From TrEMBL:
This is DUF1887 family CARF protein. InterPro entries: Card1_endonucl_dom, CARF_Card1, Restrct_endonuc-II-like, tRNA_endonuc-like_dom_sf. Residues 233-361 form the Card1 endonuclease domain. Residues 6-142 form the Card1 CARF domain. Pfam families: Card1_endonuc (PF09002), CARF_Card1 (PF23400). It comes from the Bacteria.
Length: 372
């Protein structure tokens, strides 16, 4: 595709359609003009701020209410442009905005739209069929475009005890109840700020076996029928469930998406904070992962987790996919609810092939987009 000096973009909440061509180094313009209706001023400002940080010149064109076609048409006449230097992006805006821009801007302006990660010509389809956009957007940029700031994330880490993951995933039916006790002891230790926890229960065979595995992995320095002593606070974090987050990290490394991280914390302008166990971008689509080792069937925790994920998916932006990775299998009614909410589930022994299941979810999402 030819490189144009100016891109004219129509603004709505779907920022990626406008932004992706602007950050592709082979076709990025020098300047972008964002045309917006009053209801999308905030979206226009976000996209403007993003582009200014990327070194682009930016102009904003305020349009009247988007339901008045004649006024919209006149508004576009304000743009004094050399059509040979301009490209009109019709990916965003309302239908009336697209009609007005298409009809009242010079016919010689190149027109295109963006779907997913490809650019398609509209005015001169004989030039080429489509152009594959570079997958350059990163997690921080994606969240910023949807009103969220990334406060912290972990992109690289050294994962220990991956052989222990294999043991736990291979024998879910043996360890799932023992993991519940481990979670409680580690949570209590974390809350109290201590390494040693006293308890009054007799370990069953599975719990004894699990404690032995943890001891052999240098996560526990001592255990008996009354006491569990963790090696350090990192060991406490690991034992209270962070190990499945580490497993997600290893699976994402194998998947090799365009960007990924674990332990992501985001905030919006209102001060709302959300913590995300894992997030990754694959072909410019965002996927969020929630990792759980607790018994979600108790006290409606499965339902709470699924609705939290559904809300978070809506927060993060359009076309976001939610994935719940649960060590302990969910109840049938939660599986049905997850299906209704379009949240993918990886559970129990399926986590042995965590990366393959992530790949299957990505492929299914791509097929759905193609048929949609």
């Amino acid at each position: 595709m030819k490189k144009y000096q100016i891109h004219i973009c129509l603004v709505n909440e779907n920022a990626l359609g406008n932004i992706l061509p602007l950050i592709d180094p082979d076709i990025a313009p020098e300047k972008v003009i964002f045309c917006y209706s009053p209801s999308h001023l905030q979206d226009a400002e976000r996209q403007r701020d993003f582009c200014l940080e990327k070194g682009l010149q930016v102009q904003l064109l305020a349009l009247p209410k988007r339901d008045n076609l004649s006024e919209l048409q006149v508004s576009f006449l304000q743009l004094q442009l050399d059509p040979k230097t301009c490209a009109l992006n019709l990916s965003g805006g309302s239908k009336l905005m697209c009609m007005a821009a298409y009809e009242f801007l010079d016919d010689d302006i190149f027109r295109f739209c963006v779907e997913k990660d490809s650019l398609y010509p509209i005015s001169s389809p004989d030039q080429f069929n489509f152009y594959d956009l570079a997958n350059k957007i990163q997690l921080e940029d994606y969240f910023a475009l949807h009103g969220w700031n990334v406060q912290s994330l972990v992109r690289t880490k050294t994962v220990l005890h991956d052989d222990l993951f294999d043991e736990l995933f291979e024998n879910v039916s043996t360890y799932e109840k023992a993991i519940g006790l481990l979670n409680k002891l580690a949570h209590d230790a974390d809350n109290d700020g201590v390494l040693e926890m006293r308890h009054h229960r007799k370990f069953n065979d599975a719990q004894v076996k699990l404690m032995g595995k943890l001891y052999s992995s240098n996560l526990l320095s001592y255990y008996d029928a009354n006491t569990v002593r963790f090696v350090d606070h990192d060991a406490i974090d690991f034992c209270r469930g962070f190990w499945i987050e580490d497993a997600a990290y290893l699976a994402l490394k194998k998947l090799k998406p365009q960007d990924f991280a674990i332990s992501v914390e985001i905030t919006n302008q209102q001060g709302s904070k959300n913590e995300i166990d894992g997030a990754f971008l694959y072909e410019n689509q965002l996927y969020l992962i929630e990792c759980k080792t607790s018994h979600l069937a108790r006290e409606g925790k499965g339902t709470q987790t699924l609705y939290k994920m559904d809300t978070l998916v809506d927060y993060a932006g359009l076309h976001t996919e939610g994935i719940l990775a649960s060590y302990r299998p969910l109840e049938d009614y939660d599986l049905r609810r997850a299906k209704d909410l379009d949240i993918s589930i990886i559970q129990g022994s399926a986590l042995r092939n965590f990366d393959q299941h992530l790949k299957n979810i990505v492929e299914k999402s791509k097929e759905s987009d193609q048929h949609g």
